[in-house]
Amino acid sequence: MRHLTAIAAVALMAGSVSACAGLGSINPFKGEKKDPLPGERHEVMPGSALTVSGGRASVGGRSAMNEWSQPGGNAANDPGNVGLSGGVSASAWEVRALGGLGRRDVRTSSPPLIYGGNVYVYDPSGTVTALSAGGGKLWTTSVGPAKEGRAPGGGIAASGNRIFAATGFGQMIALDAASGNKLWSVDLDAPARSAPTAADGKVFVVSGTSVVHAFNQADGKEAWNQPGIGEVAGVLSSASPAVAGGSVVVPYPSGEVIAFEAASGKMKWTDTVIRPTRTMAVSGITDVAASPVIDNGVVYASGVAGRTVAIRLSDGSRVWEQAVGSSATPVVSGNSVFLVDLQGFMVALDRSSGKIIYRSELPGKHTKRFNTIWTGPTLAGGTLWAVSNDGQLVGVEPSTGSISSTRTLSKPAFMKPVAAAGELLVLQSDGTLAAFR
User: Fold this and answer.
1) How far is CA 26 from CA 23, 29, 30, 32, 223, in A?
2) What strands lie across the sheet with 392-396, from one edge to the other?
3) pTM
4) Which of 35, 138, 211, 283 sits between 20 and 30 A of 326, alpha carbons compared?
């Protein structure tokens, strides 16, 4: 998107330069400086200026979370404040978890899982790898067709001693978590858009044609499916369904957020994160790139169109909306909703009103050739953690938004960290998985 914007700007400048000589002679504004016309000035794009209300954000107590079993931590995408063993002051271990990746290769959009004392990773080539707690390889199973290269989308979730892999090759596969043996396999209507969510005896996945499928975990039989509205343009994302209270909340590329009854697939309500006023080029894409979060009966959803909303899970009524968008799943804890917005700011929103408590810019480079892009946050050890495409890992103080620590990674990172069993895991661009404690 940045490249498209740059190309458009270059084309515009080129046209302007060639026309300057001819237009200069008929320019009605050339010559004597005039006083501005009297009258009041108003914004032509309401909502483009954000209001920061101030105050201090708070987070809940730290939980001894031993497993990160779903793409969003748990089925509700709501891990809260995960406990860590000390601060992120030392590297516990580092291992090459994915196959060789070049600059042009498809990167995984599926976060690693921490489950049953092991770590599981999904490679877009169609392989699932199990690692020990220290990074040693336990098994690798291919879940993709031979000699098909790498396919975007897909990912893994864990439940009931099984690893469920939805692939970019259009399949849903159940593996035994201990051995990697295939237990069942079914075809999807299209490649999986993102990682599935496994809960309530089912595994839920959204396909590239915007159909949500619910399969029985036991035998792979399809329980139900429901179509959404497709979208031609979208972003590669890790947006996965959220499940809680007998409901599954599904993010769609169209910008829709739809709640279904998890057991039957009956639609409960629908909402959207599309912003009526577009102030950025990326806002022309309506994608819900971030997974929705269900916390205490409220759904929090954000998208790249530049809007975050809070919706009551029970009836779909809107609690609030804010003109801030994100491509990564928000964190809900204490009195706040935390996210990294599309301009690279760490933002804290009041969870009851949606007002902006603070909006703190993260460090980075911004030149004609390179822009630092941040992904996060993950709340662990009482600190908000984010990673960047120039190889930084920063810790942010949740109450104020100030930077509390900075580490340099060995490679860039494009996926927010995961945390469980006292460790913070970062999957880097070359396929290296680094653990900190």
Assistant:
1) 5, 9, 8, 14, 70
2) 374-380, 383-388, 392-396, 403-408
3) 0.85
4) 211
